[in-house]
Amino acid sequence: MADLAKHRRSLHADGDADLEGEPIVQVKIASRPDELRLVRSTVSQAAVVCGCSEECVQDIVIAVDEACQNVIKHAYGGDPSGELVIDIRRDGDRIAINIVDFAPPVDESTVKPRALDELRPGGLGTHFIAECMDDARFRSPPAGAGNRLWMIKRIK
Amino acid sequence: MNCEIREEGGVSVVALSGDVDLESSPTVRTALLDCVGKQQAVVVDLSGVSYIDSSGVASLVEAYQNARKSETSFALADVSQAAMRVLELARLDKVFTIHDSLVDGLKNAG
User: Fold this and answer.
1) What DSSP string runs through A41-64?
2) What's the whole-model pTM score?
3) Which residue in B59, B61, B63, B53 sits closest to B86, CA to CA?
4) What is the extent of the structural domain holding B10?
């Protein structure tokens, strides 16, 4: 719990405008696939609380799940000892989600949706995020963190 | 996640239910590839799938590609709304053969 409080302060501390909004929920998980069910459940309930429709909730859950997967698989390279903080806020008629990790900074140029005309397994996660959210981009991480993915979805 | 495999009239039926996610998709991948490897028609029942992510979709795509290589029939049936949303996002709803029901899938397999 102390660690969570530390991360909460860190997320507030950088003063970035895109962390404004009414905090809804913040959850910290280990970088393990079996933690993703908790993330989906938490995100789903938070989106409902924010007034999202069933379809909107579904899209947000998909995007956050895929973003967390990317952190687990790529940023941490499968190392289960890492941590992720998922912070969800309501900002007017939008829901804002920040996913912070403590892995080495990723090269943003390598994180792109792939073309869908080529049929092959894998590489769909970033495409799902782009399709499901109104905006998603890397922003300056808080002090001590490695990466912060910021995502926005209009509540509908 | 539950992955049940059975045979019905020479067709392998793989019935998935629950969440097909990063934790469970390796099990699904193995099951699907094993069934396709038997070189008999495969129908994947997705009626009970409450969630499927990109890793689950990747397992379906890999099995589909292996089936095409071996000229084996591979189809999805009774796709839940949650699974269909993800297939549509991946533009795969026009790639896979999708039947409205398992009965239809079995009728048309082969």
Assistant:
1) HHHHHHHHHTT--HHHHHHHHHHH
2) 0.91
3) B53
4) 2-108
Region at A92 (left for phi over 0; alpha for psi -120 to 50; beta for the rest): left
In this complex, the residue of A34, A66, A116 whose CB is nearest that of residue B23 is: A34
Return the structure tokens found at A12: 């507030």
Q: Judge: A121–B61 Cβ closer than 8 Å, yes or no.
A: yes
The identity of residue B68, as a single letter, is R
Nearest residue, CB atoms, A66 vs list B53, B82, B95? B53
Instruction: State how many domains chain A has.
Output: 1
CA dihedral A59, A60, A65, A68 (to 10 degrees): 140
- Kindly report the number of other CB atoms within 10 A of residue A109's CB atom: 6
Which structural domain, as residue segments, surrounds residue A54? 2-154
Tally of domains in chain B: 1
Token pair 């190392």 is at which residue?
A: A79
Residues A40-72 pLDDT 10s: 999 999 999 999 999 999 999 999 999 999 999
CATH classification at residue B44: 3.30.750.24
- Say yes or no: B96 contacts chain A, CB-CB below 8 A: no
Rounded to whole angstroms, how far apart are CA atoms B33 and B37? 6
Encoded tokens for B103: 């009965």
Summarize pLDDT for A108-144 with one digit per residue, the tens: 877 777 777 777 777 899 999 999 999 999 999 999 9
Test B90 with A34 for CB contact under 8 angstroms.
Answer: no
| Cβ B81 vs Cβ B46: under 8 Å | no
